[in-house]
Amino acid sequence: MSDDKRKRRGAGRVTLNTVAKQAGVSAITVSRYFNQPDQVSPERRERIAAVVNELGYVPNLVAGGLASARGKIVGMVIPNISGPIFANTIQGFSDTLSRHGYQLLLASSYFSVDQEESAVRAFLGWSPAALVLTSHFHSEATEKMIAEADIPLIETWDYRPERSPIQIGFSHFQVGVTAARYLHGKGYRRIAFVQNSAAGDFSALERRDGYSAAMAELGLEPQVYAPQEGLAPFEAGKQAMQALMASQPPPQAIIFANDNLAAGGLLAGQRAGVKIPEDCAVVGFGDYPFAEMLMPSLTTIKPPALEIGVLAATRVLESLGEVDVERLNLLECRLVERESA
């Protein structure tokens, strides 16, 4: 691009002052419109919005962040953007932030501590207002970065009060305990657990450990099946169901690490002539949207996904001095009893 073209493009750029002049307000008011809209009267907000739309103005968030040494961006790293289990957390988090002029910058680690480390390093380079991670399983480098970061830090979908980041979540270990005790209470004794096929899902391993501990307390032998690593969830559930039902004696009930695995197992079992729950009960985790539409509908444990997102965003805003909240960090999962167990 030639220097003349650069000059012409720069000369025609709409600035905050241009918007303020055409809307008949001060530049400070326009800045508040973007950063603290609740402090601008409805009539002025309407006028500013009309001018912004007319001129196609886009605020320079990077420059504003550098000027204040803090941006209006909050970074969030989750294990899987496409996974339905995290959708409500993301939505609740984003909606709560946006009402206070903050925006969400999202990255997926795909259950990899190395990918999480890269995302954290990139986010911190942008001087975000806060950083939100999933669980407490991080690389050594990530632990060092978050220990030295001078911003609010929150770990979600987990609860480890001994850690310094703010904890918003629940006990995965207790989820495993709840599932095992529920099935034992229904009369099942041979109860198996199927791990996630996704490498790096350490939270699912904590649920497995809770199941194993509960089985031992009940005087029962735990039976854990690990599907082939990297298999798609439905295929992994199918593999687990076929292998477990071929064992002698077969389990009377199976706890799957998540609803995708459980659905794959349930459907594969039906195709093979296994009656559910008469021959084998099935329990999942996540309460995915399809869980109640399966035939039979899936008994599962529902995590407080939306509440985690809303509360995590609220704690971020509290740390930034935007709101006051009650310090409720430990949330509970709920067992949803349906037809499969």
Structural class: alpha/beta
The second-level CATH architecture of the largest domain is 3-Layer(aba) Sandwich
Strand order of the largest sheet: 7-6-8-9-10-11
Shape: elongated
CATH class membership of the largest domain: Alpha Beta
Low-confidence stretches: 1-11, 65-69
The major sheet is characterized as:
6 strands, mixed
Instruction: Kindly give the count of domains.
Output: 3
Number of helical stretches of at least 4 residues:
13
Q: Report the CATH topology name of the largest domain.
A: Rossmann fold
Strand content: 5-15%
Helicity range of the residues?
Answer: 40-55%
Task: Describe the model.
With 341 residues, the protein is α/β, with parallel strands linked by helices. It folds into 3 domains: 3-59, Orthogonal Bundle (434 Repressor (Amino-terminal Domain)), CATH 1.10.260; 70-170 and 305-332, Rossmann fold (3-Layer(aba) Sandwich), CATH 3.40.50; 172-302, Response regulator (Rossmann fold), CATH 3.40.50. 45% of the residues lie in helices and 14% in strands. The protein has 13 helices and 11 strands. The strands form 2 sheets. It has a 6-stranded mixed beta sheet with strand order 7-6-8-9-10-11, sandwiched between helices. Helix 2 (16-23) packs across helix 4, helix 6 packs parallel to helix 13 and helix 7 (113-125) packs parallel to helix 8 (140-148). It starts with a helix and ends in a 5-residue tail after the last strand.
